[in-house]
Amino acid sequence: MTLKAKHSAAPLNIFTTMSSLAKETQAYNLSQGLPDYPVAPELGTLLQEAVAKGYNQYAPMPGLMELRQSIATYFNRIYQSDYCTEHNITIIPGATYGIFTAFAALLEKGDEVIYLEPAFDCYVPAIEINGGIPVCVRLDEKKNFEVDWQRIQDAITSKTKAILINTPHNPTGRVWQQEDWDQLAGIIGQKDIYVVADEVYNTILFDGHRHIPGYLQEDLQEKIISVYSFGKMHHITGWKIGFCIAGAAITAAFRSVHQYLSFSVNTPAQYALAAYINLPKADNEASLFLQEKRDLLLNGLAGSKFRSRFTTQGSYFQLFDYSTLSPLPDVKFAQWLTINHKVATIPLSAFYKTQPHIPQIRLSFAKNDAVLNAAVKILSDL
């Protein structure tokens, strides 16, 4: 017997491939968004406290009430709103799960979903496994990956069920402005089209940029689900925990699927995060911390053959053009760089369905300064 593939993506994704190659060659791993610095010690203490206090059994399906209330208070404060309550927040085992479950709740077989390339590699499988048809709209690389709104308008058909957006954007680092949301709302109008908003880097913003949540767009509030990640907020990617925010109808549909998938999420982690959110700390703590690392990378490569065409506005990542250094396609270049010079990166083509022939690689700066400095020295000497 043979099992038919449920999606058209690669059997093994590029992040696993490049991280494995980095380990095999003992290269500095700037490929995956995998922080290698310690997490806040309070989180570890609170996790131990949760276990000691008996938070070891299933949490309620929507998530611990304490955590949902803490998120609501925090988000309402930083985004100057009263929209969030414990009723429209659902705790999930990671943002990838949230995106998948959103499509499981929203899609019927044959529905089309518009997504923007370059795109994180979980998007197309999540659409296809849930019976949807991915419809690609490319961001304009000649204009630093701006959204071409006419292309989105032209891609909408009678079968369009949803549009998937990502801000701050991985891999480009572009952050949506209010006019972007207004354009999207204007295009959707009265159409029965939902929006799945991947907003996992919402707390990692640079140079004064601010995140504008999708769920606060009045014209979209009954049509949108925003997905967030504690892994990115607090540099705890291995905890695999996040949350979704949506209106009543979408929340009910989401939870009706969620209860039959994971049902609940790691209870000690929920306890720890509920308490940690309430501890006094700067709201822009992650942004300041990671902007220093971004600038270390950019300044270190400023005189090198690696050129940044667009300075990332948010996320863990910065794209670099290597065309003055090598004519190799980006996958072969990334492999060559890892094997021969011990710096692992991600080729930009990994974020495309069809090879775009753009000579750029993505570097993660969510690393210890010692790792960044060593990698910068190698790259700047090429």
TrEMBL record:
<keyword id="KW-0032">Aminotransferase</keyword>
<dbReference type="GO" id="GO:0030170">
    <property type="term" value="F:pyridoxal phosphate binding"/>
</dbReference>
<protein>
    <submittedName>
        <fullName>Kynurenine--oxoglutarate aminotransferase</fullName>
    </submittedName>
</protein>
<dbReference type="InterPro" id="IPR015424">
    <property type="entry name" value="PyrdxlP-dep_Trfase"/>
</dbReference>
<feature type="domain" description="Aminotransferase class I/classII large">
    <location>
        <begin position="28"/>
        <end position="377"/>
    </location>
</feature>
<dbReference type="GO" id="GO:0016212">
    <property type="term" value="F:kynurenine-oxoglutarate transaminase activity"/>
</dbReference>
<dbReference type="InterPro" id="IPR051326">
    <property type="entry name" value="Kynurenine-oxoglutarate_AT"/>
</dbReference>
<dbReference type="InterPro" id="IPR015421">
    <property type="entry name" value="PyrdxlP-dep_Trfase_major"/>
</dbReference>
<comment type="similarity">
    <text>Belongs to the class-I pyridoxal-phosphate-dependent aminotransferase family.</text>
</comment>
<keyword id="KW-0663">Pyridoxal phosphate</keyword>
<dbReference type="InterPro" id="IPR015422">
    <property type="entry name" value="PyrdxlP-dep_Trfase_small"/>
</dbReference>
<dbReference type="GO" id="GO:0005737">
    <property type="term" value="C:cytoplasm"/>
</dbReference>
<keyword id="KW-0808">Transferase</keyword>
<dbReference type="InterPro" id="IPR004839">
    <property type="entry name" value="Aminotransferase_I/II_large"/>
</dbReference>
<dbReference type="Pfam" id="PF00155">
    <property type="entry name" value="Aminotran_1_2"/>
</dbReference>
